[in-house]
Amino acid sequence: MQKNLHKKLELNYSSSVLDIVQFGSSIFEGSEPNDIDVAVIFKSIPLKQQLEESQNLKKQLEGQFRLPIHIKSYDFYSFFDKGNFARENILFYGKSLVYERHFAEIFGLIPRLQIYYSLKNFKKSEKIKFNYLLNGKGGKYGLLRKYGGVLVRPGMIEIKPEYEKIFSKKIGALISDFRIKRVLLNK
Amino acid sequence: MLYFLLGMNAVGEGIGGSEWGKKEVLERTAKEYFSSAREEFAKERYNSSVVLFFKALVALVDLYVLQNTGETPSSHNSRFKITKEKFSDVYDILDKDFPFYQDSYHVLMTKELAEVIREDAEKLAQKTGIKL
Hints:
The complex is a heterodimer of chains A (about 190) and B (about 130).
Chain A: E1 17-23, E2 36-42, H1 47-62, E3 69-75, H2 76-79, H3 87-93, E4 95-96, E5 109-117, H4 124-135, H5 143-147, E6 150-153, E7 156-159, H6 164-174, E8 178-186
Chain B: H1 2-42, H2 46-69, H3 76-86, H4 88-103, H5 111-128
C-alpha cells in the first residue's frame, strides 16, 4: 500500500497556482495505485504558462513519490467545462497537496459519503458483529473511530471520501444490501 | 575475397542509404503532418489539429534523435527513454504534450492548445534545422 500520499508537500510554484490536487485511485486509503493523478488549478493565465509550470511541478513531485505522476492543468473555466471528464472526481475526492484539505473546501463545501444500511432480519449475533465492526471491541478501535466516521442515526454513517473502499469492503463482507450516497455539505 | 569485399561494400551502402532514407522520411512526414495540422486548424477542427501537430512534433523528435545518435526510437517508450536520458529539453516538451494526444479521443481540444503544440513542433523544427 502506498503510504503518505495526500500529505502536505514542499513544492515551489508561482502565485498563479491556486491549488495542487491529488485525485484518482491513489486517493483511496487501502488502494494499490499504479500512478498518481494530480490536477494543478491555475488562475486565469495562458495555457502555455500553465503547461510549463505543471511540467515543473511534475518533476518536483516525481522526486517525492515512487509512482509515475500524471499531471493535468486547469483554470476554473476549463475545470468546469463539460469536456472535463475528471471534473466530478476531482471536486469530490480531490485532496489539496498544498493545504492538506479536500479540494471542495475551496468552495466552502465538505465532501462526505453517507452509507445507508439495514440490519433488519439480522440475527442478534450478526447485529453485534456489525456493531463491533463500527464501534470496536475490548479497547480495539472500530472503523468509525479509526477513520473519523460518525453514526448519524441507526442505519446511516458518514465518512470521508478517501475511506470509501475500506468501508465498502468491510461492510460488504457482513451486509450485502447497503448503498452509498455522495454529498457536499456546507462548511 | 573480392566477392566478400564487394559484399561488405554493398551492405555498407545499404546502411548508409537506409539512414539517409530515414532522415528523408521523417522530414517528409513532419512536413506533411504539420501542413495538414495547419489546414485542420484553419477549419477550426482542433482535435485533429492537435493530433497532427503532435505527430509532426514526434517525427521531428525522432529526426533530432537520429541526427544526434544515428538511431531512431522504435516506440513511444523508447522515445521517452532516450530523450529523458540524453535530451532533457526535448523530453520535457514531449512529456508535456503527450497527454493531450492521448486525451484527444475523448476530450475536446481548444484553439489555444493547438497553438501551444504547434509552437513546440516549430521549436523542434528549429533544433533539427528543418523548414516546415
